Structure formats: structure tokens, C-alpha cells
UniProtKB/TrEMBL annotation:
Pfam families in alphabetical order: TetR_C_13, TetR_N
Record organism: Paenibacillus dokdonensis
Keywords: DNA-binding, Transcription, Transcription regulation
Stated name of the protein: TetR/AcrR family transcriptional regulator
Domain of life: Bacteria
Amino acid sequence: MGRHKEFDQEKAVDQALDLFWEKGYESTSIQDLCDHLGIHRGSLYDTFGDKHELFLACLDRFSERADENYNYILNENSDSPKEQLERYFSKVIDVSMNNAARGRGCLMTNTTLGPVAYVPNVASRIEAHATNTEALFFSFLMRVQKKGCLKSKHSPRELARFLAGTKQGLHVMARTAADRSVLEDFCKVAISVML
């Protein structure tokens, strides 16, 4: 009879995600993961396959968390799209600046900037995450346009891409910004372009 796994796999993915987010994929070793998760190498390999497969599971979990953390804000029905976008970006700043390792930015953005981004199954997850972010903004902006609140001469598609870039830029800036107002000013200008 096989031995039962003695750890919670969901919790292990969350813990591994935090470690990869803090150290980056390249700087995280199998031993780091084993120590951080409190499991043996055999259990890690039996459950997740290898470091790369565990990392892919972490990227998937991270994308799910975006909906829980802030994406839901743009799907709400609101009378004030400007206030809605301000709340959204405020939450993005919170997540980027006030996480377990302050100033670690965004796991997906950090991964985009590293060598592992060129690995096909990582690149496809990065692309899917970016596509979903753009689609979220596009859907939001289409609703804003129908309400007659969109003041930009640019199309909702162009603005969605601009906002997706703004969000990614926030994550990068959060890694070094000591003062939240720097990021808030960045968002204020971006929002003023369209609302």
C-alpha cells in the first residue's frame, strides 16, 4: 500500500508561489522549496513532478488570485467609472507594495522580465494573463463608453492596452518606490487620459 501524502497540496502551491515571488524562479532551488514547504524531495517530485511543473502551478494560482484581489472591481456595476478605476489601481498598488516581502511587485511581471519567460509553457501563461488583463479593461471601457463617460479620442481597445501597460508598469515601479504617492500620481495621470 502506498504512503499517503502528509501535506496539503493547495497550501504547498500557495507557499511555493510566495517563495518564487520573493526569490524568482532562477534563484529558487529545489532545496529552498523543500525547506520552505517542509517536505522531502521525494514528496515534491511525486506530487508536482519537478520545480518547473510546480512553478507552472504557481503561475496558474497567481492568475486566479488576480480575480480575488482586484479584477472583480472592474466587473462591478458602478455609477462612477472614474472612482471604480481609482479603486482598482489602489488595490493593485496595495498588492504590489504591501505583500509579504514588501516591494516584490507582481509574480507574473517579474517572471516576464526573467529568462524563464522564454520557456514556451511559461510564455503561454504570461501571454494568457496579459490577454485576460487587456480583455478585462476592454470590457470595462466598453461599458464606460456606453454610459457616455469615455472622454478619450482613442478607441476602447487602444485604451485597454494602455491601461494594461499602466498596470504592469505599476508592478515594476512598486519594486523600488518607497513612497506610495509616486504610484498614485502615475495612476492619476493614466485615469485622466480617459475619464
